[in-house]
C-alpha cells in the first residue's frame, strides 16, 4: 500500500504545492502529542486548541485558493462569452473552433481543481482519523459537527465543492451553443438534455466530480446498512489480512449463510397461520411461531459474537447443524401433531443465527480495498433471501406422502431448508479456510488482558476541552483524557456497553427498534389479515411478500446514489420517519368503512419502503455517533443494533399473538396502535437530538 503522505506529494499539481493541506506538518504534530502523552507531559487543553487552529488554518488556505481559482475560471468564461457573442452576426467556423478549444481548456482547469479538492478532502479525513486513534479523543465528532453545520462553514467548501455545478452548467451551455447544427444555434434549455451532443470534456468533468461525491455512495450506503465500518487500516494490517486471512470462498460461504438464514426466516410467513390451525391452535399463534426464532436470536447473537473472537469455522459449523436439526423438527411437528415440537424447531433455528459471525468475518478478514463491496454483498444477500423466502413458499404448493411423512405446504419449508443446510454443511466442511489469528490481535479482540491495563479516570479536566466537545461528544465517565482507555478498550459487558451510549446513540437504537417493529407487524400478520379481509390464498400472499422484499435493493440504490447526495442523513432520517408514520396511519381500518386491497397494498408499500430507507440512514448515523470503543469486542455496535432489532421482532410477534384474543376483526388496529405510538415517540426523540446528528 502506498503511503498517503507520498501519494499526496506525488499527486500534487505543479505550481499549486503551497496550497495543499500540510499533512506532514499535522502528522508530525500528532506524533509530538503522542510522545508527550507517553511521557505524561501533556496538556490536553493546549493540544485541542493548537490542533483545532492548525486544522482551521489549513482548511482556510485550501478554501481561499479554491475561491481564487473559481474566480479565475469565472472570469475566463465571462471573456469567452463576450467573444462568442461577437460571432452571432458572423459565425466563422475557424473562430468557433478556437473558442470551443478555449472552453475545453477551461474545462481541463476545472478538472484540475476538482482533483485538488479530492486530494485535500482525503488528507483532512486521514489526519482526523489519525488524531483520534493516536490520542484517544473523539475530536473528529466535534470538529465535523461544529464546522460543517456552521453557516460560514469552510469545511463545506472542501467536501461539497460548492459552486462547481454552476461552472459545469456554463461550460455545457456554451459548448452546446457552439455545436454545428446545420446553421441552427438552439439554446440547450430549449432541447431535450439527452439529445444535446456532449463534448468529451464535460464527461471528464462529471466523472471527476462523481469520484469526489458519488462514485462510492451506493456501496458505502449498503455497507452502513450492514453496520460494517469501512475503516482506515495500517499497511501492516492490510498485508496481514491480504496474506493470511482473506479467502474468497470463505467469504462466499459467509454470504450464503446470510442468504439461507434470511430465506429460513421468511419462508414460513405465508403458511404459519395455516400450520397453526392444522395443529389445533388459533391462526394468530403464527406470531409465536414466527417470533420464536427471534427470541432465540437474542441469545445466539451474544454467544456467536463472543465465539467469533476465537474462530469463524466452528460457529458456522455449529450454526449449520442446529439449523438443520431445527428445520427437521419443524417439518416433523405436523405428523406428530405437536405445536411444542414446532416451536422447539423454530427456537433451534434462532439459536443457529450466525449473522454476528458473518458481519465480523467481513470486518476482520476482508481487505479494506474490497470491504465495502463485501458489505454491500452482505446486505444484498439478506435482501435476496428476504424476497426468495416467501416466493419459495408460494412454489411449495403440493400435498403427498413420502413413507410416513406428510409433504405439504406446511411441512415442505422445513424439509427444503433442511436439505439446503445439509448441502451448505458439506460445502462448509470441504471449502472453508479458518483465517490465521494473530495472538496479539486475539487478546485485543477479546479485551481480557488488555482491559486490565487500563483504569478509568474519575474526573474530567475543566476548560477549553469542555467548550470544544459538546455534551454528546464527551467520552464516557470522564475518560476523554485517557487515550488508551477510550479508544483501545472494548466494552466488556452489556452494562459497560450501555454506559457508552450517548443520547444520540440511544435515539438511533430506538428508531431501529421502531422500524423493525413496524416491519415485523406488517410481515408477520400479512397472512392472517389478507386471508380475513380479502380471501387471499398462500400463493397470492407469497407473491405479495416477495414483491415487498424485491424493493429493498432498488430503494437502497436510489437513496445511496442520488438522495444521499441531495440531502443530509439527518434530513432523510426525519423525512422517512414521517413517511413511515403516514404508512401506519393509512393502514388502519376505519369503523364503518370497507377495507380495500388498494388501501392495504399502498399502506404496506409505504410502510415497508420507508422503513427500508430509514434502516440504511439510521445505521449510517449510528456508525457515526457511536463510540469507537463499540467498534470491537463481543459487545460491539453491530451486536447492539442486532439485539435492538431482534427484540423489536419478538415484541411485535408477541403483540400479534396477544391481539389475536380480541378476534381477527380487531387484530389489524390492535397491532397498529403500538406501532403508531412508538413511531411518534421516535420522531419526538429525533427532533430532540437533531442538532447532534452530523453527516
Strand-pairing-aware structural class: mainly alpha
Tell me the CATH architecture of the largest domain.
Up-down Bundle
Per CATH, the superfamily of the largest domain is MFS general substrate transporter like domains
Q: Largest beta sheet: what is the strand line-up?
A: 1-2
Shape: globular
Give the biggest sheet: 2 strands, antiparallel
End-to-end Cα distance, whole Å, is 28 Å
Number of domains: 2
CATH level 1 name of the largest domain: Mainly Alpha
Low-confidence sequence ranges: 181-197, 229-243, 439-488
The proportion of residues forming helix, as a percent range, comes to over 70%
- Number of helices, counting only DSSP H or I runs of 4 residues or more: 30
CATH topology of the largest domain: Growth Hormone, Chain: A
Strand content: under 5%
Write a concise synopsis of the structure shown.
The longest helix is centred in the first third of the chain and has 43 residues, at 93-135. With 695 residues, the protein is mostly helical.
Which helices and strands appear, and what pairs or packs with what?
Elements: H1 4-10, H2 23-39, H3 44-85, H4 93-135, H5 139-148, H6 155-160, H7 164-177, H8 200-213, H9 217-225, H10 235-245, H11 248-266, H12 272-278, H13 286-307, H14 313-335, H15 339-351, H16 355-365, H17 368-395, E1 400-402, E2 405-407, H18 412-431, H19 439-446, H20 464-468, H21 483-488, H22 494-499, H23 503-524, H24 526-533, H25 538-550, H26 552-566, H27 569-587, H28 597-625, H29 637-659, H30 664-688
Antiparallel strand pairs: 1-2
Helix pairs in contact: 2-3, 2-4, 3-4, 3-7, 4-7, 4-8, 9-17, 9-26, 9-28, 11-16, 11-17, 11-18, 12-13, 13-15, 13-16, 13-29, 14-15, 14-18, 16-17, 17-25, 23-28, 23-29, 23-30, 26-28, 27-28, 27-30, 29-30
